[in-house]
Amino acid sequence: MNTTEFNQQLLDFLAESPTPFHAVKAMSSRLEVKGFTRLLESEKWSLEAGKRYYFCRNDSSIIAFIYGAESLVEDGIRMVGAHTDSPCLKVKPQPEVTQQGYYQLGVETYGGVLLNPWFDRDLSLAGRVTYRTVTGKVTSSLLDFKRPIAVIPSLAIHLDREANQQRSINAQTDLPPVLMQVEGTDKPDFRGLLAEALTAQGVQDVESVLDYELSFYDTQKPALVGFKEEFIASARLDNLLSCFIGLQSILEADGKQSVLLVCNDHEEVGSRSACGAQGPMLDDFLTRLFTDPESRLRCIAQSMMISADNAHGIHPNYSSRHDGNHGPVLNQGPVIKSNANQSYATNSETSSVFRHWCEQSDVPVQSFVVRTDMACGSTIGPITASEVGVRTLDVGVPTFAMHSIRELAGVADAHALYRVLVTFAHSPASELDTPR
Q1: Is 250 strand, coil or helix?
Q2: I want to staple 75 with a disulfide (CB 3.0 to 4.6 A). Which of 14, 120, 429, 432 is the partner?
Q3: What Pfam families does the annotation carry (predicted)?
Q4: Which of the 8 DSSP states describes residue 354?
Q5: Above pLDDT 70, what percent of the chain?
Q6: Are 24 and 266 in contact (CB under 8 A)?
Q7: 100-119 b/e with 16+ CB inside 10 Å = b?
Q8: 223 pairs with which residues across the strands?
Q9: More confident site: 430 or 427
Q10: Per-residue model confidence as pLDDT tens digits over 298-308
Q11: Domains of the chain as residue ranges with CATH
């Protein structure tokens, strides 16, 4: 797949995926087209070599697996990990607020949101809604309003003359989006509005909405931008971009080697959940894959995980925020992320073999280390390494404006990392042959 085709499919995937629930649905449909069979955790599994499988947990995390022809014990598994969630504004359980004749919804911040860019955007709402049917069954459906239904208006500079010098945001009082105007004390029932929206979407058996997990999102479509269209601009590049790269790489695998993709929810808030990287999802899968503990341990000793999560590109206006020798540039290749204090799981062996695969793929590679006087973020890499015991590497595509409502990446980098992951998926065990 060439760069142009890859990026167009990436833009389509980003537009389809306003929430982790929608991202998992989009990935599931692409996997099924390529012959992956869905597994249900409540059923007995009988996995066979040569077959392709996937399963979901909480509708927001997914594992896809190709059971290769080579021996799991002798050849291991090539693993790629990413996360489906992004910082955003989530609707509170009892959100209705009426002020000055305007109907608003209370929100809470999810993850480390960069708040300023959320003002004056055309916002929509999407997520999962759980409801009782007319027959008394409790079930869930995904919902996406798609059209702009809300906005968070800025306070005019005339009323805040210091806004450009020192405006701060109170997340409780400044962020509730405006949805509509209302008369007097009239306050529409939000759950009733959701029931109407589900019905309009084609769900015919809704009696009453019981609860929901809904997030606001920017309706501006993903796009190629720049004078020469060198950049991809979109919401949720962190980290749906890596999910898509991992997905495309496993779809290209030839089935000789065993290959696994895991995309976990809740990374942005610490990964501590049943479907997060610190939860048992991957471990549960490996338990069902192996009938005895020793075979599993021997397989893990021959395996490797590439944790893919975006890296900070060096910003031309803020270059002093980077270490002078470690400033990744957009469109100059994927980034190996290292940290002496294990915020990233990279070590000299895993970084070296990744450099080897980059050379084989004719892809340039860059390095990122945070300034010594600044705190370092983390990924699912160290968590997965500590939970499973697999050797792990942290890499990512360089981006600007991470955790903003709209982020920026280079058009060449996602495709470059995809090519490296395809090489990784086809690599023989001998390239990972280090004593353990």
Answers
A1: helix
A2: 429
A3: Peptidase_M18
A4: H
A5: 99
A6: no
A7: eeebbbbbebbbebebebbb
A8: 233
A9: 427
A10: 999 999 999 99
A11: 3-86+235-432 (3.40.630.10), 88-218 (2.30.250.10)
